[in-house]
Fold this sequence. Notes:
The protein is an alpha+beta fold.
Amino acid sequence: MAQVSKEYDARLDSKKRITLRGAKSMYYRVHEKKDGTIELSPRVLVHPDDISQNTLSMVDRSVEQLKKGNASRPVDMKELNELLD
């Protein structure tokens, strides 16, 4: 687990937003837990031109198969969510 490098109190503004001091990333993935804990993970977004042609063609084939109704059963994420909470 990562070491805490900063700790401070923050409050919601009138629009229910929090300001992050010295944020190192522009985008974050937000995880809200049942106990009220909020966890932020930095995200790096990739420009579409940086995605390989192989990956794009694989995505296109997958979308075609999905439109034809060829898809596996939904994955039950309940067990994983219980482990993460």
